[in-house]
Amino acid sequence: MIKNKFLGFAFFILTLFMAFNFQACKKKKEESELITTVIIHLYKSTVSTGNYSWKDPDGDGGDAPLLADTLKLDSGQVYTANLDFLDESSSTTKDLTSEIRQEAKNHLVCFASTPNNLTIKIKDSDGTFPIGLESEFTAVTKGHCKLRITLRHQPGVKNGTCDPGESDVDVEFPVIIK
Amino acid sequence: MLLSKTIDNYGFKVNIKSIAYCLLLFFTVNVYSQNTCRLRLSGIILSKTDSLPLPYAEVFIEIGHLKTISNFKGQFEIKNLCRSLVELELDLEYFKHTHFNIKINSDTAIVIYLEPTLQRIANIQINQKKFDPLQIKEDEIALKESGKNLADQLELIPGIRSIRSGNTISKPMSQGLTGMRLPVFVNGIKQNGQQWGSDHGPETNGTAFDALELVTGAAVLTRCADAAGGYIELRNEKIGHPGETDISSGTGYQTNGNQLNIFSKYLHKPASNSHTYFSNLSFRKAGNYQTPGYILPNTGLVETMFSGGMRKTSNKTQIFIDGTFYCQEGGIYTGSHIGNVQDLLDRIKSTVPISGNFSYSIKAPKQTVLHSQFRTKKIQLKTNGQNYFVGAIQYDERKEFDLHRVRIINFPQLNISLLSANCQVGKQIKIKPNLNIEMGLQGTGYLNRYGGYYFIPDFQAINQAAFFLLERKATHFKHTVTVRSEIYAFSANASSGVKQIHTKKTNAGTAMAWTGEIYKRKSIWKFDLGRLFRFPWFNELYSYGVHHGAAAFEQGNANLKKEITYKAATTFNYYSQKSNIYLQIYSNYIQNFINLTPDSMPILTVRGAFPSYQYQQFNSLFTGAELNWLLQINSHFEMKFSQSFLYAKNLENHRYPAFLPPIKSEIGLTYRNAILGLNLQTEHVFRQKFYTSGTDYIPPPAGYTLFNGSATFVGLFKKQNYQFIIGVDNILNKEYRNYLDRFRYFINMPGRNIYFRLIWNFHHHNEQNIKQIYHDKK
Q1: Is residue A17 part of a domain?
Q2: Whole-prediction pTM value?
Q3: Residue A103 falls inside a structural domain
Q4: Closest-approach residue (CA) in chain B for A169
Q5: Chain A residues whose beta carbon lies within 8 Å of the beta carbon of residue B249
Q6: ipTM of the modeled complex
Q7: Does a structural domain hold residue A137?
Q8: Is B406 in contact with A35 (Cβ distance < 8 A)?
Q9: Contact A85 B406 (CB under 8 A)
Q10: Is residue A10 assigned to a domain?
Q11: HSE of B371 in the Cβ direction (CA atoms, 13 Å)?
Q12: pLDDT digits (tens, 9 = 90+) for B483-516
């Protein structure tokens, strides 16, 4: 009987020890990151033709986003486009572009022009699949269109298409091609 | 056939055949050693003062740790005894502990009279519970439910369903009502957590408790006014008897998710003093779950709960001090976190959901929850009643981690801490032999702070309540009437870029309820009428933002009024040797029902367009029925049939509310003998017909039928009792989706799950000390 009592108590202590060693609720350091701003830097050859931004300063919180800048392009021209993703939710602006590049195997920037006045060709690569932070815009047809840019978060599922993963950013720029 | 296969699950190989042989050999030894023990001891337990039958008396035999509880007629039965001299012990709160020896040579029937203590004479037993199916006892929790969430454990109670967000998050629902309308009480104290969110499960687990119960009727108003669906009571109710040490330990493993769970319960009452000490621990860890076709990434879970305390009982006072600590980290299926409407629609259309490999790793999106509480209760026993004080302090912390952030690892988008304090003073008085009253004052204070991005404001709130209960008994009838008034004051503040709130408000309300019970020889008819209310909570008033990145932008409505529920229900309980029937028919008319209603236009953010929801009020009707029938076919076979039905409608636009439980039917057949129990159960859930087209992204899924089975072995090892259960859920590995699961848009429910649980009960008396005490008393 005494042996049983000891065994029961030992099992209880063992249970306690195991449970607390798994550290299910250990405190972890907190750090904040949020994309609030998308900027397109456009270059014709190496000459800058403008910076165009889309801003939602409180992220996916409450206030409506600021209206996006309109891209004005010349028909038949080819532009180099570099994207920046910023966190401007606090007084200190954080540039998150380099972090996206570091995690290039988990991210893909997708472009879509509606209607198809503009063609986009991604220039950079993570070694296997495109990234989309650097690309080439060709203004094909005169008129108005909308350029949708989505930053897809594809941890472990990136396959070069826009289908897998979730959207970290999903914005639309108006475009005028003269 | 099944056992001869080798399971290769997540790279973990087990030869089931060899395990089966070992188990067979192991249990055969036990069968051989016990196969001559077929005798039965039955009896009736009566009060020595008035010869009334005593329900809920614990009847215990030391050898074999055989235990049962008397039914509402005071009857009990213990089967499979050997020819021997057995020591029988009886325990019932407010009655003297009784133990004596009885020689068992054949089937034996006895009458036992228990002598009340002074406490019993003083106590008017206002809240004495009847033997009914709305309660789950310790043994059932440990054996059948120890590896599950609280809401899933509670599904053993007729009428309780769980509304879920995948496998890790579920919350109980009764009569179609959940969240704030179905509060959870732990040892008499309302659990103040973040129960308002549809994806916030209760911050506790039932394994650490001795009983789980759904409480309905007029007595609800002695606790709260907002429990339109009743309330869930979790209790550590064991007091123990002198010299007793009681330990239950269990461990379990299940193949789906490779879940390991362990629990341990300890109770000790020294022979030499009036204290009882207890502690309970439960732990479980699971990895990614598997549906019939794929593994669901990031659906693991780690959960720990610890509770412990002390009770001191004497003839004049009873003191209870205890505390609980709960923490959980749960992954949320990666594919359920949707960036925007287009992603959501794409994901729903996709025939191949995002799947992954097995892992215990938990990443964003995820939730971490921590809840701790400390409680104390003091009862002063008087000759005509009792005075009591209950107090508690609680701290609750919830962090929700969104997937949609670059390199999001450690920053919770929703981070809420709630500190609260509860206290209640009350008095129970026996005015006449058949007339009891109870009156009390109750106060609750809340202090809430948020971090991360704005979703709900900081707030301070105080709720003060007074109640009065009157209970009048006749030979075959009992009336209970309760009236409760509440005053509620709060201030809410937020100074974020998203929301500016600086407001103070007060509100007041009165609730009342009546319960009438008619007692017949084998049945109880119960009638409930009530008017309950609840004040809108802070998320309903002031929420603003994307909740947990779950593709839902929620917006509160500061103009919401008090929600008022008019309840009417009738319950029929029938008990006989052969048959137990529970039938409830209910109807709830809810005035100003607060509901999260979809907007016609989505809201635009940097992450795209989100579906937008606003809290609105409308009048609604919930009506339904629950049937639970237990049929004892013979001494070995038992059959169970249950049926659940609910109809609800928005009475203003005549639409059906979302997430109504569909009709469910269940049939089970159980075989039992001395050492073996076999159970086969099938459940059919119908397609939800009460659905208004166009009010959800996809219509309700098809109905489905599941088959489950289990085998339970009971044995002895060195005079101590153990139980071993092996079971299979979803035997046919059926692919199905559950309408009450928010993840049904994307994924199927888990597939076949084989589980094993071993429970070992250790019960010890310091016999020498007990004999000494009894000798001293003589």
Answers
A1: no
A2: 0.80
A3: yes
A4: B607
A5: 8, 11-12, 15
A6: 0.73
A7: yes
A8: yes
A9: yes
A10: no
A11: 23
A12: 999 999 999 998 766 678 899 999 999 999 999 9
